[in-house]
Design brief:
474 residues; 2 domains; alpha/beta; 19 helices; seven-stranded mixed beta sheet; binds iron/sulfur cluster; TIM Barrel
Length: 474
């Protein structure tokens, strides 16, 4: 098999991994033109300072001895298999880099033989690139669950970022859908990565570890596998020391790392598959919050399950649950930049995110007693909780009001999205212009709810159809 064909197979097999913030394109080359948006393997990622960089996203091998039901590379799936020799991949990377096709590499692999052997091959590529080729580009390596901690530590030494995917949000689902993996194998690697980057993994308060049983509804569409679908799925037990009750944002601020740190400067990340198992949004968000606090995970990615194939361990869905994935990303944003906690966003009584409202608007409508917020008096964190006010506009408000009292008409120029904020703020008692009659007519906030519905459902519907048709990630 020639290198081009291998690249085609192995780049295609890598595209389902969302943990490098990538996006793809299906635009083919035009006759007589130059460039091809569909060339296998090159995708885009965003650096810490917001630049978009191109990455070669590829597997070392798509032959896998494991059989995870959601994965196209599972051993029971009948797909063409290929693998690079480490030296062959190093040459390809250097070739692409010198031609300016790529600025970095995302490298993963199916489990070939055993976790240690696979990890050694991945490290072999990384070490050769760094030492022999003196290559200094961005490198994201995938760690293999169950690999020895010495190998994981060495991977952390060569890579900018290492990720290990949890995929299933509970131990019970992991056992059913990915029976070759264990929580110990996954979280052991995460602990090693945290330690390699100078962070001692922690245990969380009990209320953060245990998922409420009511947040685990029976899932009617799930095929009956030993009757387990209707049982509550136990939370992962992830760590040995205590973490005080703080928001992810506050904890992150306390341990801001040196960006020039030689070990894992871009930290560790992970991915959770959404929709391949019955866990609620509350279960997924509680786990994500735990990961941010307990392992200093830099980013949790949510990947809508792409129903492709006939494995009976995963449900038959009309298409990938993209709207749910979108809402989870919005809720995740609230942890990391707005000071929210998971138990404020969802609870046992309300285990799933509202599909029509972004999670911040939904929270505000449930907590109308906290509003309106006076923008001339509220502190920074209170301002952050107002729909339509983000970190940048909250900072601008705090600075601007030191010089003059703010009026409703000045908020828009400070970056406040008045379409949302108008319902929730006053300026020293003066409310922005929301039609009073409409306000009076809906004491239950139904007018505000209708006005705040963001249209994501309508926006994602055509994409959903396209994905159904193509059976592919975008
Ligand atoms: S270990 Fe599981 S998720 Fe990873 S490549 Fe193999 S089958 Fe896919």
């Amino acid at each position: 098999m020639d290198t081009e064909r291998k690249l085609e197979i192995l780049a295609d097999a890598a595209k389902y991994d969302a943990s490098c913030s990538s996006s793809g394109s299906a635009r083919p080359a035009q006759p007589g033109g130059i460039g091809n948006g569909a060339v296998g393997g090159i995708c885009h990622s965003w650096s810490a300072d917001g630049r978009c960089v191109s990455l070669l996203k590829v597997l070392l091998s798509n032959a896998c001895t494991y059989d995870c039901a959601y994965c196209v590379n599972r051993r029971s799936n009948d797909v063409p298999r290929a693998g690079f020799e480490p030296g062959e991949l190093v040459r390809l990377v250097m070739d692409f880099y010198k031609r300016n096709y790529i600025e970095g590499v995302f490298l993963s692999s199916g489990v070939v033989g055993c976790p240690d052997a696979t990890m050694e091959r991945l490290i072999g590529v990384a070490r050769t690139l760094r030492v022999q080729e003196r290559w200094n580009g961005y490198l994201h390596l995938k760690a293999i669950p169950g690999a020895a901690s010495e190998l994981v530590t060495e991977a952390a030494r060569w890579a900018d970022r290492v990720s290990v995917n949890i995929e299933l949000p509970s131990a019970a689902s992991l056992e059913r859908v990915a029976p070759d993996k264990t929580p110990k194998a996954i979280f052991g690697v995460m602990r090693t990565l945290a330690r390699a980057s100078g962070f001692e993994p922690r245990r969380l308060l009990p209320e953060r570890r245990s998922l409420p049983a009511a947040a685990e509804p029976a899932w009617k569409d799930l095929p009956a596998v030993s009757g387990s679908a209707a049982e509550p799925t136990p939370a992962y037990d992830i760590g040995p020391a205590a973490e005080s009750r703080r928001s992810v944002m506050a904890a992150r601020k306390d341990r801001r790392r040196d960006p020039a740190s030689a070990v894992l400067p871009a930290g560790q990340t992970t991915q959770l598959v959404v929709g391949a198992s019955p866990e609620s949004d509350a279960a997924i968000l509680t786990l994500a919050e735990n990961l941010y606090l307990a392992y200093d995970v830099r980013r949790v990615y949510y990947s809508a399950f792409v129903p492709a194939g006939t494995d009976t361990r995963v449900p038959v869905l009309p298409g990938p649950p993209l709207l749910r994935e979108h809402r989870l990303y919005q809720a995740d944003w609230l942890f990391r930049f707005y000071g929210f906690r998971a138990d404020e966003i969802l609870s046992p009584e309300r285990p799933d995110l509202d599909q029509d409202l972004d999670p911040k608007c939904a929270w505000a409508l449930r907590n109308l007693g906290r509003f309106p917020v006076d923008v001339n008096r509220a502190d920074y964190l209170e301002l952050l909780r107002v729909p339509g006010i983000g970190p940048r506009s909250a900072s601008r408000i705090v600075k601007a009001r030191a010089h003059a009292r703010l009026k409703p008409e000045s908020l828009r120029s400070l970056g406040v999205v008045m379409k949302r904020a108008a319902f929730f703020v006053t300026c020293s008692g003066v409310a922005p212009n929301v039609p009073d009659t409409a306000r009076r007519a809906s004491p239950d906030a139904s007018y505000a709810r209708a006005a705040l519905t963001d249209g994501a459902r309508a926006m994602l519907a055509p994409l959903q159809l396209e994905l159904d048709w193509e059976g592919d990630h975008a």
